[in-house]
Amino acid sequence: MGRAERAAGPEGGSEAIPITPSEGLVIEAEGLRKSYNGALAVDGVSFRIGAGEIFGFLGPNGAGKTTTMRMLYGLASPTGGTLRILGRPFHERDRDLKRHIGVVPQETNLDPDLTVLDNLTTWARFYGYPREEGCRRARDLIAFVELTEKSDARVEHLSGGMKRRLLIARALMSDPRILILDEPTTGLDPQSRSLLWEKVRALKAQGKTIILTTHYMDEAEKLCDRLVIMERGRIIREGHPRDLVRDVIGREVLELRVPASEHSRLLQALGEAAQGADALGDNLYLPTENGEDLLVRVKRTGVALESAYYRRAGLEDVFLKLTGRRLEEE
Chain centroid to CA 262: how far? Predict the structure, then answer.
């Protein structure tokens, strides 16, 4: 069964948990379902997450990604299917196994009346650390997220980016093998986002398995080794971001702004060259291997264009193609 490690907590007494599951898998979900009052929020999803991966869940609001995440850290219990974490079946009352899962929630639920250091030392006591050891670990984590100068500041005086970093430090208190990030950079400025990405990559380098949801396509492209796109409770696509872009879209996208009343005439004139086109209001998105050549063909149709340009295809185009909407509109 491989090596084993005590669940985090210096007092010991926890059941040993395998840290080298079969095939290097950390999470195995098969036919996972969750219903509320008879309505399926998650409809039979299956996925596997390997040790040391950054794995993403994308999808519009109501797609089931948040419910899936909640089942992964025990806040919701599955209605059906199986879920194995670190090689053994998982349920919401498995406190020993939950010590190996750190969670950074979407909302900021720090204690605003406590200092940065006190927020972490309070959490350390929750995990059974002796006072001195808990304080030492708290200071190490504060240094890791670059908040040392704010150790004695109250949480209410921190910026949004600082609060997000403190939430990550708190989630790492038990030295979890799995870190779950629920939209970790929502509302942050570009500098704060970049710093948080740096910390996520550092945690991956330490061997942590990281699971995240995000509404930022550049974030998913830069961070995720693999991801799934969910819609209406089901997984509709899975893969590496670059592979998804190549397989679903191609190399480039030609973006046209032209009155919606002219879309049919333009697409008919382009014929097979317009295959895979998507529309959003007056905008047309045409996947292509050569945007320059396709733009020449578009101009030859004689349809009046308000604007036109081509660019390299990205993950947002994949999302638009598969779900018919943009993440930031949800």
Answer: 38
